[in-house]
Specification:
The complex is a heterodimer of chains A (227) and B (443).
Chain A lengths: L18 H27 L9 H15 L6 H13 L8 H14 L4 E5 L19 E5 L11 E7 L13 E6 L15 E4 L13 E4 L2 E2 L1 H5 L1
Parallel strand pairs in A: 1-2, 2-3, 3-4, 4-5, 5-6
Antiparallel strand pairs in A: 6-7
Helix pairs in contact in A: 1-2, 1-3, 2-4, 3-4
Chain B lengths: L1 H20 L6 E3 L2 E3 L1 H12 L2 E5 L6 H12 L4 H7 L1 E2 L6 H4 L1 E3 L1 H5 L5 E3 L1 H4 L2 E5 L6 H4 L3 H6 L1 E4 L2 E4 L4 E6 L11 H6 L2 E4 L4 H10 L10 H12 L4 H23 L6 H12 L2 E2 L1 H15 L23 H4 L7 H16 L4 E2 L1 H12 L7 H7 L8 H35 L12 H9 L5
Parallel strand pairs in B: 3-10, 3-11, 4-7, 7-10, 12-13
Antiparallel strand pairs in B: 1-2, 5-6, 8-9
The chains are: A alpha/beta (227), B alpha/beta (443).
Chain lengths: 227, 443
């Protein structure tokens, strides 16, 4: 008589593991993949040991970042965890705040979830370019401070920073909204084409704004500061 | 390479029918693609040589969908397809459906059968099958099942055929389709109202049937079918005329079609697609729920499922009948055909879940309690397909929760069957009991 279970002859049962072990292993795997992706970006971008903020360079870096992450499987929580991996410096050969921030921005822009929360208030350093090109329909809440170019080239997304941001916040943004609960630096809104920047506390200086509006403590400030 | 060529041809046929002949909305999603279920399943039926029951309100394209697909997949002018259709009505006779004595020969004392076009052609359409009285439905049982048609002492066998039957919803003139006949249909689909926009478009495209007409070839086919010749000679004549119609479609519409050899190759390709272990285990779990009865050994339509059974949470408690052996055959054949059509290299759970509701809908007889609970659900499908879809989803949910455990149980059962001294894997589902029965361990 033939064996009716023949189709399962080759079935290899997975080794029994505790749920926590599986979660931990899966988490480690994702972090390893994200770190490897960042390594590829750094490899591409760091021909020299200095990374300059040039418009073309940023676009190129973002393009490369998008390319290296396209096959990665991750969620919004993994992005937050990865920020701390970057901050810890373990397994990260070169932490350069610019490419690292662009890499994190690309992760945020391509993650499946529309709402992303990054609790970065315990990080020792800040990342630049967080929220770069955040598209319409996505919201990014950053708890803690951010570096320069926060929300630059924003494309309709909604960014909230509970701490302070550095210089060039919202530079080149076309639409969307950036809300900053504390201060922001110089050249805020430089070459801004549209959208809104809301700052609860002090704005150190505005950039040359083409269009859009900047509010300080609820008051529109573009005209008065530029005058 | 050839695989891709045939698939490309079939895709072109689907697109042609969808854009030029049968206008309707997509209502089924497979992977990233959306299809119209009536068109998809009539096409897969024609491809696999299956049997489809198409239900729906009058005038919503049940018969025409079958006619267009049959005409294009088998290279038959649509006029020939029309001429071979059997209409379901109370006065229908065996002589009109299957064959009649040759009266000229009978006068000379010889008995010879003149076979109907319906019996001879590979595309068989029974229009309004539920208008055939129940006693007359059994006349077509054997032919439908095996392709064997008998009249007097003669027999004709179809080596390649597909069957489409249409049925309206119950009214004064309809009868119940007998369970054995119903079970022989691989799938049941509903040809739905296309919505006002596509519906209005149909009124603007009345010339569409002319695209598939060819009076000259229709006449030649008529003559070939009437001719007294050996089955081989007749088949080769019909094949030659069909190929001429295929060439005509290529020339006039730039539409490639499949000849008999190509269709055979397509069937071989479909048959060679393997089932993934998950699809296999999921199907076994489904079948277990559709046939299991803890108290009586198996489901039987004349026995009642008692309250208080441990397994009341499973489908067996809500069903009145037992799944037949034709269900897994239909599931497997159509899932493979769908995988072939959508370029999947293997059959996974997705293909099983896509075809499952249509394979199960007409075969499952649900209890009145279950029907009354679900008939008011908000839904797009007719109740039978909706219930089958819900059932498939429910089993999928259970399978997802214990997939590894079920596969482990089946793999362990393999080793026990081979003589290893192991304990069967236990679990709370009919499948584990059925595995014990297969291993002769159940008391």
């Amino acid at each position: 008589m033939f064996n009716p279970f023949e189709d399962f002859k080759e079935f290899l049962s997975k080794a029994k593991t505790l749920p926590l072990d599986r979660l931990s292993a899966a988490h480690d795997q994702i972090m390893a993949e994200l770190t490897s992706g960042y390594g590829k970006l750094v490899e591409q971008e760091l021909k020299s040991l200095v990374w300059f903020v040039e418009h073309n360079r940023v676009i190129e870096a973002y393009k490369t970042a998008t390319e290296v992450i396209k096959d990665l499987s991750y969620d919004a929580h993994s992005i937050e965890d990865f920020c701390y991996v970057l901050d810890s410096g373990v397994d990260i050969p070169y932490l350069i705040s610019g490419p690292a921030g662009i890499y994190v921005a690309a992760l945020c822009n391509h993650v499946a979830e529309d709402k992303i929360v990054l609790r970065l208030d315990e990080m020792k350093r800040t990342l630049h370019f967080l929220g770069y090109r955040l598209p319409y329909g996505k919201s990014l809440r950053i708890e803690g401070d951010t570096g320069n170019f926060t929300g630059s080239a924003l494309q309709g997304g909604d960014i909230t920073v509970t701490g302070a941001t550095g210089d060039w916040t919202g530079a080149g943004m076309t639409e969307g909204k950036i809300s900053i609960h504390k201060n922001c630096g110089r050249n805020t809104g430089e070459w801004m084409q549209g959208g809104e920047i809301w700052v609860d506390s002090r704005i150190r200086g505005l950039g040359r704004i083409t269009s859009g509006q900047v509010y300080q403590a609820g008051e529109a400030v573009v005209d008065s500061l530029m005058a | 390479m050839e695989n891709g060529k045939y698939r490309h041809t079939v895709r072109e046929l689907y697109d042609f029918i969808q854009s030029r002949l049968y206008f309707n909305r997509p209502d089924i999603r497979v992977g990233e693609e959306e299809f119209n279920s009536t068109l998809l399943f009539t096409l897969l039926t024609a491809l696999t040589g299956g049997k489809a029951l198409i239900i729906g309100e009058p005038g919503l394209g049940k018969t025409t969908a079958a006619e267009y697909v049959g005409s294009l997949l088998y290279q038959l002018p649509v006029g020939t397809v029309w001429a071979s259709e059997v209409g379901g009505h109370p006065e229908q006779t065996e002589e009109k459906i299957i064959g009649r004595p040759d009266l000229g020969k009978l006068n000379q004392g010889q008995e010879e059968v003149v076979w109907s076009h319906f019996v001879q052609l590979p595309v068989k359409i029974v229009d309004e099958i539920n208008r055939l009285p129940e006693t007359k439905q059994s006349m077509i049982l054997d032919g439908v099942d095996r392709g064997n048609w008998e009249y007097l002492n003669e027999m004709i066998r179809n080596s390649e055929y597909c069957l489409f039957a249409t049925a309206n919803y119950q009214d004064q003139g309809t009868n119940t389709i007998i369970a054995p006949l119903l079970d022989r249909f691989d799938v049941m689909v509903e040809s739905r109202h296309p919505g006002p926009s596509y519906g209005f478009l149909i009124s603007q495209r009345q010339e569409k049937e002319e695209l598939l007409r060819h009076p000259d070839l229709e006449r030649k086919l008529q003559e070939a079918l009437k001719k007294r010749s050996s089955p081989e000679e007749k088949d080769s004549q019909i094949a030659a005329i069909s190929e001429a119609f295929g060439a005509h479609l290529q020339e006039s519409l730039q539409l490639p079609t499949l000849d008999h050899t190509s269709r055979t190759k397509v069937r071989e390709q479909i048959g060679s697609i393997a089932l993934e272990q998950d699809a296999n285990a999921y199907a076994r779990m489904l079948l277990a729920e559709l046939s299991f009865c803890d108290r009586h050994g198996q489901k039987r339509s004349n026995e009642v499922c008692e309250e208080g059974c441990h397994y009341t949470g499973y489908l067996c408690h809500r069903l009145r009948n037992c799944a037949s052996n034709r269900l897994p055959v239909s599931l497997s054949n159509y899932a493979k055909a769908l995988a072939w059509f959508t370029e999947a290299s293997t059959v996974g759970i997705e293909e099983m879940r896509a075809v499952g509701p249509y394979c199960l809908a007409h075969r499952a007889q649900w209890t009145d309690t279950h029907l009354s609970l679900l008939q008011k659900d908000r839904r797009n499908d007719p109740l039978q397909i909706h219930l089958a879809r819900e059932a498939m989803n429910e089993v999928f949910q259970r399978y997802s929760e214990q997939a590894e455990h079920v596969k482990e149980a089946l793999a362990t059962a393999y080793r026990i069957f081979q003589g290893e001294s192991l304990e069967p894997v236990a679990g709370d589902h009919p499948i584990y009991v059925e595995i014990r029965k297969d291993l002769n361990l159940e008391e």
